[in-house]
Write a structure and sequence with these properties.
45 strands; mainly beta; 3 domains; Methylamine Dehydrogenase, Chain H; seven-stranded mixed beta sheet; nine-stranded mixed beta sheet
Length: 671
């Protein structure tokens, strides 16, 4: 890094620290209804939490030193902030008449707040965050207790929002009430005027909708009026965030990735909640993409991955939630013949969901226009659903379901899930919902029908007879990529989440449409200007948000590349004394605990070398090469875990275009 760039980063960091110090002591007291609300800024939490970071850290203080820019792991800062806030509550300084409130306490979700107070006796609590109309109120109740951490979600941006907190006794009678206003800042530019309510239904099945993924929008939530009531400060990878049980979600880092043959995929991701608290951080060495589901509620995590054995986007991974280890994986290239294994992302897995009863995995593979069900334990393919013409004359044809009657097929589909459509007493019958983008750019087929619409198709599969027939098909405007659909069984509603319209409709790239499943009447409709990857019902678990984080020192889980000890042959190839300095302005360095990051333009760096006083260690990034021009200029950080390095002082070098270059960066690992 050039000296001028380093100075700029240091000035920026010092300015941020100064701003935190400046704002930490700010306090605003709201008066009304016979009491006060002490309003503290998020900087107060950041400043107060700093002294507890060492308590929760995995590593001793100063375990690593040097001149590399140091940053903090979000899992660590979340625990420290949460503990600082818990101590405020336990002090019993704040009461129902004199509450404490912090807007965006974890600096991740600007339209949230945390209100805290103690009561002498046990009370349940009900909160109402008032919307502009009654149907857009956020109303939640919390279990009884004497100490109350009340999460506030659903604040409006750029204005005050009325909040009411009520104490309830055992008979659900209101014993006392406090009402006050909370003021937030303006929406970021990329969220202004992005949602347009075309048709509003006050009785929509979903009160609030979460939009996630895409290039030009960060995760956000809008209400029945189309007004944004929640968003995340940071943008994740283009696949967005993935809802999990207990109101949590998985957030994939946007700029920490693994080089691959195609899209560089995220290798660092967070198990988060809607206050912005990060629990565990997961590393997936070869990157993850497109889809995340839980195997069972609160159980292991399923995601699409990359073998990087000549192909990418060709794995289904099961990640052990407690350890981050890969508990099981399925490489679809081992099951399919090689007929279509003719490009790097030949399969392009974009959804995978598990059936506990059958121990099976339902997998959507976009680039072969196919859906397959696998035995998860053995990897055996149970059946394959696709246009029979596509697999005609191949060994896979024998696995195809036999169509019954006229069956319209899907092309470059997304978001394939099993749904319960009827009171079905036949255990052999399964209903499969497919978002049929009906597109064939990546894998053209001569029998494509050129239909100008996309569809949500429901197929009835008889698994004993190995047949398939169309149950229902609902059309929507063409969405050539991304997208998903949600069937709401209890209300007989279908949500069509079309994330990439072609052509755009009135300048809008995304469409969310609620229809009556039986009559196909459009009940509500919203446009999302920049489009999105997927959309979901917004389902925060407010009870979980009202509890302190579980303290956990083992918060970094999974696998990253690690340094390897250099043998004589390697050492002979490197002339450290002749190495010139790194001059590429795109290259940056940072360290978070014992993880080292280097920013690059895709595939610039071949090797990262740690030259110690005693020995030399290295991490290779030569195992892939870029095959798609779309990603040649992608900029991201590569990451490596330094825990295997013995105590020493290390000078860091890079191998770029087979040329050894000195970064000027140093890391000292203490004994």
């Amino acid at each position: 890094m050039r000296i001028s760039d380093r100075l700029k980063e240091e000035v920026k960091a010092r300015r941020e620290d100064w701003q935190i110090q400046k704002n930490a002591n700010k306090k605003n007291v709201l008066h009304g209804e016979g009491g006060t609300v002490t309003l503290r800024p998020k900087e107060w939490v950041t400043h107060g939490a700093a002294e507890y970071e060492e308590t929760f850290s995995r590593l001793p203080k100063n375990a690593y030193k040097g001149n590399v820019r140091e940053e903090k792991m979000y899992s660590l800062t979340s625990q420290a902030k949460d503990w600082f806030l818990e101590l405020q509550l336990r002090s019993d300084k704040y009461t129902f008449k004199n509450m404490l409130a912090v807007i965006d306490p974890f600096d991740e979700a600007p339209l949230t707040a945390l209100v805290m107070f103690s009561t002498i006796t046990d009370y349940r609590v009900r909160t109402t965050v008032f919307g502009d109309v009654e149907e857009t109120n956020f109303v939640y109740e919390f279990p009884e207790g004497k100490r109350h951490r009340i999460p506030i979600l659903g604040l409006y941006a750029g204005r005050g929002t009325k909040v009411q907190i009520e104490l309830l006794d055992e008979q659900e009678e209101v014993c006392d009430t406090r009402t006050f206003m909370l003021q937030t800042g303006e929406l970021p530019e990329d969220l202004k005027d992005v949602v347009k309510a075309e048709k509003i239904n006050k009785k929509s099945a979903f009160q609030n909708i979460l939009v996630a993924g895409g290039i030009d929008i960060r995760p956000c939530v809008f209400d029945r009026e189309g007004k944004i009531r929640y968003y995340l400060r940071r943008k994740p990878k283009g696949y967005g965030i993935f809802p999990l049980s207990k109101g949590r979600f998985l957030f994939m880092e946007q700029d920490i990735s693994a080089p691959s043959f195609t899209n560089p995929h995220s290798i660092q991701m967070y198990d988060m909640d809607y206050l912005g608290r990060v629990g565990r951080t997961y590393f997936v060495k070869n990157g993850a993409h497109h889809t995340v589901e839980e195997k069972t509620p609160e159980g292991n995590i399923l995601m699409a991955g990359n073998s990087l054995e000549g192909h990418s986007e060709d794995l289904v991974l099961e990640i052990d939630r407690a350890t981050g280890a890969i508990a099981h994986k399925l490489k679809v290239g081992d099951v399919f013949d090689d007929t279509y294994q003719d490009m790097m992302d030949w399969a392009h897995i974009n959804s995978a969901s598990y059936d506990t009863e059958q121990d099976s995995m339902l997998v959507s593979m976009r680039n072969i226009h196919s859906v397959a069900k696998f035995d998860w334990s053995t990897g055996e393919i149970k059946w394959l659903m696709a246009d029979p013409k596509f697999w005609e004359g191949t060994p896979m044809a024998e696995k195809l379901l036999t169509p019954v009657g006229e069956v319209p097929w899907f092309y470059q589909q997304h978001a394939v899930f099993e749904v319960q459509l009827t009171q079905n007493e036949n255990p052999d019958i399964r209903y499969i919902m497919v978002f049929d983008n009906h597109w064939h750019k990546r894998r053209k087929v001569k029998f494509f029908d050129k239909d100008e619409q996309s569809y949500i198709s429901f197929y009835e599969v008889n698994e004993r007879e190995k047949t398939v027939k169309l149950y229902k098909r609902i059309a929507c405007p063409k969405s050539k990529i991304r997208s998903n659909a949600i069937f709401v069984e209890e209300d007989r509603r279908l949500y069509i989440m079309a994330g990439f319209l072609v052509p755009e409709i009135d300048g809008n790239l995304g469409l969310i449409r609620e229809v009556d499943f039986d009559t196909e009447e459009i009940l509500s409709e919203y446009y999302v200007k920049p489009g999105f990857f997927r959309a979901h019902e917004f389902c925060p678990d407010m009870t979980s948000l009202s509890k302190a984080l579980v303290q956990n020192a083992d918060y970094l889980l999974g696998e990253l590349k690690r340094p390897i000890l250099a043998e004589n042959e390697r050492l002979a190839a490197w002339d450290f004394e002749a190495a010139k300095n790194v001059t590429d302005p795109m290259i940056r360095y940072r360290r978070r605990e014992d993880v080292f990051y280097v920013r690059e333009v895709d595939h610039t760096i071949q090797t990262v070398i740690f030259r110690g006083k005693e020995k030399v260690w290295y991490v290779d990034f030569k195992d892939t090469y870029q095959t798609m021009k779309t990603f040649e200029n992608a900029v991201y950080y590569i990451a490596m875990w330094m825990d295997v390095l013995p105590p020493d002082q290390y000078d860091i070098y890079l191998e770029i275009d087979n040329d050894l270059q000195n970064t000027g960066e140093k890391i000292v690992k203490q004994k």
